[in-house]
Amino acid sequence: MTTTRKKRKAVEEEMPTSEPGQLIYVGPTILDGLLQQNALFIGGVPLQYEDLLKEQPDIELLIVPVAQLVETNRLTQIPGTPQHAVYQRLQKGA
């Protein structure tokens, strides 16, 4: 391996990545701050949210890999998308 390739590989290893284990919640803050907008979960969704997700499974539409953050945020703004419907329902506290 050349020196240039070694340096490139070292830099790539140091750069943060959007691994599947890194998830972000893009919905509004709910339940008096229990689940906050832009909460980052590393290694999956913590068990403390298990009951919430059982009661309201559609919230999972707003918990996405970090790489999908921009696209999902966009979808929350488009009426008629499932993401928009969930976001609006949560924002109204329903």
What is the H/E order?
A: HEEHEHH
Which regions have little confidence, pLDDT < 50, spanning 5+ residues? 7-19
Radius of gyration: 17 Å
Overall strand count? 3
Distance from N terminus to C terminus (CA atoms, Å) equals 58 Å
Number of domains: 1
Strand order of the largest sheet: 2-1-3
Any idea what the shape is? Answer: globular
* Proportion of beta-strand residues: 5-15%
Biggest sheet character: 3 strands, antiparallel
As a percent range, the share of helical residues equals 25-40%
How many H/I helices? Answer: 4
Helix and strand composition category: alpha+beta
Mean pLDDT: 85
A few lines on this structure:
The chain has about 90 residues and is of the alpha+beta class.
What does this structure look like?
By secondary structure, this protein is an alpha+beta fold. The chain has one domain. It has helices at 3-14, 50-55, 69-76, 82-92, and strands at 22-25, 40-42, 63-65. A three-stranded antiparallel β-sheet has the order 2-1-3, with no helix packed on it.
